[in-house]
Design goal:
Layout (H helix, E strand, L loop, with lengths): L33 E5 L20 H4 L1 H5 L6 H8 L5 E7 L6 E9 L4 E2 L2 E2 L2 E4 L8 E2 L1 E2 L5 E6 L9 E11 L2 E8 L20 E3 L2 H29 L2 H22 L8 H25 L1
Helix pairs in contact: 4-6, 5-6
Length: 291
Amino acid sequence: MKTLTRLILSSAVMTALFSFQTSAFAGTPDIRPGRYAPVSSENARAYHNRNSFSCSGNGAYYCHNLENTKYKYTPEEQELVYGAEVNGDIIIRKDEATGEYSMSAIIYVLRTCEVATRLMSGDYDTYRYKDKFVDCVSDDNGFIHCPLYDPDAADENVSRVILTISQDNPDSLKITSRVSESDSENFSPYCFPSIEKAAFVYESEEDFKHNMYISAKLDFMRTDADINHEWKALTKDQRKKALPDQRNWIKEKDKKCGPVTLNGTEEELTKMYRCQADMTEKRVGKLIDMK
C-alpha cells in the first residue's frame, strides 16, 4: 500500500463498500454501505481511489522515465495516469441494529490560503491505515455528517473538515464540505477545494480488484522504465562490473515473483506485477548508488 508521503498533490488542483436499504421512516438517511471513489468522468469509470496508480499526484518526475518509453496507453490506463483531479476514497458502514453510520476515508486536498505568509497543502483523512472508522451524525433530512481529521495537526482528535453526505441514487454520493467550527478561526472555507465537485461513485469489489490490476501493471511499467534508465546511465565499466550481480538479481526476482507474463487471472497478474515492481524499485536504488 502506498504511503501518504508518496501521494503528493499537484500545484494546480488536488492530484489532493452492499445492498440498498429501505428507510425505517421518512427522513432517515438511506445511504448504501460500501466503497466510493472519485472517477475521471461518469463514462470512463476509472476509479481514483487512494491505491490507484497516478502520475497526476506525484508530479512529472514520478513518471518521467515512463513517459520516455513512449508507451501507448489504453484508454483505461490513460484515465488512471492523467485523469485524476481528486484522489482518495470513502468507505461507509451501517449498523443495521441501530441504523447509525460510520465512515473511513482518505481524501487529498489542496489548501490555497496564505497562512503565516506561506502556502500550505495538506491531506485529510480518518486514519483508515489504522483501520479506524469515525461515527457520523444523522439528521432528519436524510443526511449524515462525518468528520475528517488532519494527520499533521497537533491534536489529531480535532476535526478540520465535516463532510455532509447524502445519496440521490445507489451509484454515487452527494457530498458537501465545510470547515469545522473548531478550525474556523484558522482557515477560511475557501482554503479547501470543492470536494463536492468530485464524482464519488460506488466501486464494487470486482471494480476495485480490476483497478488494482491496472494500477499494479502501470507501477511495474514505471519501475521497469526507471531501471532501464539507470542502467543506461552507468558507465561502460560500471555496467561490466555490475552485470553478474544484475543477472543474479533478475533470476532471483523471477523466481520469487514469477516471470513477467500476460498469462493468468487478473488476481495472479496483480500479485506478480506488485512483486516485480517492489523488487525493481529496490534495485533501482542500488544502481543509483553505484554512480
